[in-house]
Design a protein that fits this description.
This protein has 87 residues and is mainly beta. The protein has 1 helix and 6 strands.
């Protein structure tokens, strides 16, 4: 959605699913937004990401530098899917 200052808010939803035959533990998800929006584009993450199920969202996620871990911990049972959302 376009903001009054001419910028846009884009909501991302990332879904992960365990297609394997055993439970996954210590699940981590990372996203380098700098690779998605290279310079000279500018971006900021608005608010903290949210996660469903047993995924633990990284409330300090910025998507740049060394802070690209979107989820710091979690597990996925066989066939289970969960979602992480951020703006």
């Amino acid at each position: 959605a376009r903001q009054t200052n001419g910028s846009y808010n884009v909501t991302y939803s990332i879904s992960v699913r365990n297609y394997g035959n055993s439970e996954l533990s210590n699940v981590q998800i990372s996203d380098d937004l700098g690779a998605t929006f290279p310079s000279p584009a500018q971006f900021t993450v608005v608010g903290a990401p949210s996660a469903t199920g047993s995924l633990t969202a990284n409330s300090a996620f910025t998507g740049t530098g060394s802070n690209t871990n979107l989820v710091t911990n979690g597990r996925l049972a066989v066939g289970e899917s969960q979602t992480v959302t951020f703006t």
